[in-house]
Amino acid sequence: MTIFKPNCTYCHKRLQKNDLTIMFGKANIWHENCYGEHLEKTFQNAWFREIIILKKVKKSLNRLRSKILSVNSKALDFSKFSKDFDINIISLKSITDTCEGLNNIQKNGIMKTLEKLLENMTKLSTSYSEFLGQHAFSKTELTLEQYTEKNRDVLETLRKKCIELIDNLMDVHHQLKSLEIKTQKKIRNEIKKQIDEIPSKVTRF
Question: Looking at the DSSP assignment, which residues form a beta bridge with residue 29?
Answer without folding.
Answer: 23
